[in-house]
Amino acid sequence: MRNPKAIAMLILSVVIGAAATIVAAGWVAQQGRVASNKIVVAATDIELGARLNSQMLKTVDWPSGSIPPGAFTTLEPLQDRVVKTSVLRGEPILETKLAPLGTKGGLSAVIPEGKRAMTVRVNDVIGVAGFALPGNYVDIVVNTQIEGDGRGNNKQISKIVLEQILVLAVAQEANRDETKPRVVNAVTLELTPDQAEKLDLARSVGTLSLVLRNQMDNVGVDTRGIMKRQLLAGDTTPIETVEPKAKPVVKHVVKKKTAPVVAVIASKDTVEVIKGVHKSSVEF
Q1: Other CB atoms within 10 A of residue 77 CB
Q2: Which whole number is the average pLDDT over 256-280?
Q3: If exposure means fewest CB atoms within 10 Å of the residue's CB, which of 28, 66, 98, 224 is most exposed?
Q4: Distance (Å, rounded) from C-alpha 130 to C-alpha 178?
Q5: CB of 104 within 8 A of CB of 174?
Q6: What is d(CA 137, CA 166) in angstroms, rounded to the nearest whole number?
């Protein structure tokens, strides 16, 4: 004989399970009906300076409450726009990541207003063994000679001449997503006009080296450079500076003129003495 209580419990369990299934299905359906809009995202990885086209982009559903400011809903406004930063696949295309309208593609699109791009030759040592990648910051050291007394007594010196210089590109690539070192023969740097003049002069008077620095370190340093005698002999004497010789001061002495003393003999026993405007007589 079957136990009626066990049958009742089994039936109750089936009913409860069916009810839970119905509730869960309704909740999932409700979540699927969350309001969404179409926005444009990158269909592939896009390098900075690239000109956009329809093959690089696609539209996807995005929750309406979390659409980022500056997003685009259609592809047409993005045709031939230039990105000024790298964009990863699936990342929304925003106005803040685009160069101004009318900008041509290439590296010039990512150079900020008031800055310049300048390329210098490097090798595997100067280029920090390939670790000076786009997006990194470097200091520039020049090794040259200080002119001596004209008898061949020139003094060798190394000194940091530029600090916190942004690397825009290595060789001819400006991809900032790559982290592996690459040994190249040229590095393009972002400079102000004044810094460009200094760098051009530095590479003409000596050899350059790049010094990689922390991207978050923006504290400047003021070094006086180091000379050969300081490096090898431990000489702590500061680097000499040539001071202009002071011109001798010429003092003009004005002599005061005095009136001559004139003696006039008036007679045999009397002498008349005239001093300036004073007149006196002396008798003998």
Answers
A1: 13
A2: 58
A3: 66
A4: 12
A5: no
A6: 5
Exposure class string for 136-148: b at 16+ Cβ within 10 A, else e = bbbbbbbebeeee
Tokens representing residue 66 in the block: 């979390």
φ and ψ of 11, to 5 deg:
-65, -45
* Mean per-residue pLDDT, 185-205: 90
Exposure string (b/e) for 6-38, b if CB count within 10 Å is 16 or more? eeeeeeeeeeeeeeeeeeeeeeeeeeeeeeeee
Burial annotation 99-126 (CB, 10 A radius, 16+ → b, else e): beeebeeebebbbeeebebbebebeeeb
Distance CA 227, CA 157 (A): 4
Residue 243 has pLDDT above 50, yes or no: no
Structure tokens at 6: 């066990």
Average pLDDT over the chain, rounded to whole?
A: 77
Closest CA to 190 of 122, 140, 225: 140
In this predicted structure, what is the pLDDT of residue 145? 84
Q: For residue range 40-66, what is the model confidence (pLDDT) as tens digits?
A: 999 998 887 888 998 999 999 888 888
